[in-house]
Target: Universal stress protein
Amino acid sequence: MKKILLPTDFSDNAWNAIFTAVKLYAEIPCYFYVLHAYEPSTLNLLDAKSQQRLGVIYDSLKQYSEQQLAKVLDYMNENHKNSNHSFETISKSDTLVEAIKEEVSKKDIDLIVMGTQGATSAKEIFMGSQTVKVLKNLKKCPILAIPADYNFQVLRSMVFPTDFTRKYEKSELLPLTHLATQWKAEIKVVHVAVEFLLNDTQKANMKILEDRLRESHFSYHQLPFDTNISSSIEHYVMETRAELICMVRHHHGLWERFIKEAVIKKMAFHSKVPVLFLSEHP
Model:
């Protein structure tokens, strides 16, 4: 049974992430936890009168959270008829990051699915930053980021960018290979580089990756770039009509150090297709 955490703020974007998750994993037995976090109480920092006023506010937030979660649960139970899937709701007085951290540990979560608002003015600063905060603080759990308004229908191909500078563990690739198997989808391993001559370490890592993907349908491609990896990947995805990007968070620290480009942050904000951020391994 796959355990998937679905953080929500009850927005259209959050609903879209839920719908994408249930469609993407339609054939997989899943237990979905729908989580809503509202800000923690700061009552102990205030005087008695202020505490009383804020207490009323937080009681109201708690009531709102529980009522809206009940509506989500009712809707999914009424409209989502899939015997593979079960739903549970969680309401927590905490920051989003801390609430997710606690539930990932307590429930042994396999995957977090979150909506992203996209990079448009203040939306990038507020909604997008929530996804990036979770990416930065929950490095041991895969995260699937769903762009606003993305309408998922089918998974035919996935893009996996790499420069072969590190070894991939079999376990960290499982979220990718499981999706490839489930959907019979192709994994496009895309070598992103200025030049494509491999050193001995890269050749060895490429061979290991081939072994890790041997039971999946995969192909190799070369993608040159000048200064912007994110745009290069995004254009390639659009050209090939791939439905998902898969990235290893730890890996791209190297790219970011060399070209001063926050690849992970940019992909979370700008991608037009879902991005699966795999766990970070040492």
The radius of gyration is 20 Å. The domain at 2-147 is CATH 3.40.50.620 (Rossmann fold). The chain has two domains: 2-147, 157-277.
